Amino acid sequence: MTHRLRGPVRIVGTGLLGTSIGLGLAARGVEVQLADASPTAMRLAADYGAGRPAEPGDAPELIVVAVPPDVTAQVVAAELAAFPEAVVTDVASVKAVPLQELRAMGADVSRYLGSHPMAGRERSGALAGSGDLFVGRPWVIAGHDGISYARGSLVDDLILDLGAVPIESSPEDHDRAVAIVSHVPQLVSSLMAARLADAPDEALRLAGGGVRDVTRVAASDPALWIQILGANAPAVVEQLRALQGDLAAVVDALDDVDASGSRRAIADALAAGNEGVGRLPGKHGTHARYVPVQIRVDDRPGQLARLLADIGDAEVNLEDVRLDHAEGAQFGVAEITVLPEAVRPLHDALEERGWQVVA
């Protein structure tokens, strides 16, 4: 299998991201050397095929630091000092603070280029690793003036080898961007999920796709997120204050819904949400609007696979798919998202094949 990196590549930190990077590179024939403060974690990642344990005398071409944000700068500095010929990147979700700390320590930032793959899972650790985790996902390269293009190209090669899409940004622009698309959504999800902790069982039995969508990422690791939010606090606070104002306006309108302008304020908030979600890029970076089609799927082996095969036979390109179950039901509802012009052909094709289109 061809690859751009010659290697070897040293990965420091064998959690979800480090293991996934190792699995992806190893599958492409790149030599991967693994290091971790926990020998058990390192050996587990090696057992899963993410690379081999690092050894004295190793001379990596590229080093990927995949450790918690609060120790990223210290580990990067140590790797720069230990391997004076290697280029070092990190995959922490905050970029400005590590660069500032490295400069303050006098580290050789001419061989350092921070990056951040916009990919992850609610689960952590080597067991959750996947070599395909980054395929098609944005991967930010947080450039700075201290590194040459030739050295930085190794990070480009890493990203392309793993099937991700490189996106150039400054560290400061990156941190402002992830505050609104990642860090604040995490907080909103967690705060909403917290409302469920004391909810009566009768209410939870009614839970459908809406509440599951909003709370999906609330299962993330609190210890990791404390570090992320603390490192990016100014950008997160800016977004939270704006959200606080929007929420207060809606609360005031609902508190006296018959007052003049209250319904207009609520409608404007909902319409602004429509506008915002419409700006989210779909496949290939497009901003096309999609329509959900819901199909009943019996809870029997092979039914979802048959549905997807029938959609393919109908020559309809699906944009997304999810499956919801109601408590106690012996069937689920698959929501297939397609372009508006595909709705009628898909509806007709599925009904011809015996599927019940719910909506």
UniProtKB/TrEMBL annotation:
Pathway the protein acts in: Amino-acid biosynthesis
Domain of life: Bacteria
Pfam family, one: PDH_N
Keyword Amino-acid biosynthesis on entry: yes
InterPro entries hit by this protein: 6-PGluconate_DH-like_C_sf (IPR008927), ACT-like_dom_sf (IPR045865), NAD(P)-bd_dom_sf (IPR036291), PDH_C (IPR046825), PDH_N (IPR046826), Preph/Arog_dehydrog (IPR050812), Prephen_DH (IPR003099)
Keywords: Amino-acid biosynthesis, Aromatic amino acid biosynthesis, Oxidoreductase
Prephenate/arogenate dehydrogenase domain ranges (all copies): 7-288
Membrane-spanning ranges: none
Annotated PROSITE patterns: PDH_ADH
Family: Belongs to the prephenate/arogenate dehydrogenase family.
Protein name: Prephenate dehydrogenase
Organism of derivation: Agrococcus terreus
Taxonomic classification: Bacteria, Bacillati, Actinomycetota, Actinomycetes, Micrococcales
